[in-house]
Amino acid sequence: MKGSIGKIMQQAQAMQGKMQEAQEELAKMEVTGESGAGLVKVVMTGKHEVRKVSIDPSVFEEDPEFAEDLIAAAMNDAVQRVSATTKERMSELTGGMDLPPGMNLPF
Fold first, then answer.
1. Which of 8, 43, 59, 66 minimizes the number of CB atoms within 10 Å of its CB?
2. Phi, psi torsion values for 3, nearest 5 degrees
3. Residue span of the signal peptide, if any (predicted)?
4. Is 33 exposed, middle or buried (0-12, 13-18, 19+ CB in 10 A)?
5. What is the pTM of this model?
6. Per DSSP, what are the bridge partners of residue 32?
7. Could you list the pLDDT tens digit for every one of the 107 residues in the chain?
8. Separation of alpha carbons 19 and 23, rounded Å
């Protein structure tokens, strides 16, 4: 019995180490969100920090609200891509086991 508890603890520690590595990897990753068929691009890290915004000059020829909408849409796309990538990576580590609602790893 004691051996099985020790084995479970070792497995838990190994999983914790893998989760830490994945968190560090995800924090460093960068994704690109786009809108307007690539007219606006936002590069965001896994920690939801915006690194770069690229806007095609033609966007400014339109109504200012058009540019604002494209920027917001590109940022939202980047956020969704970070979430999807994070969920996919964590699912790989947990063997597809779903996390409880509200438990958003790693951030």
1. 8
2. -65, -40
3. none
4. buried
5. 0.74
6. 43
7. 566 888 888 887 888 888 888 889 989 999 999 999 999 999 999 999 999 999 999 998 888 899 999 999 999 999 999 999 988 888 887 775 555 555 555 44
8. 6
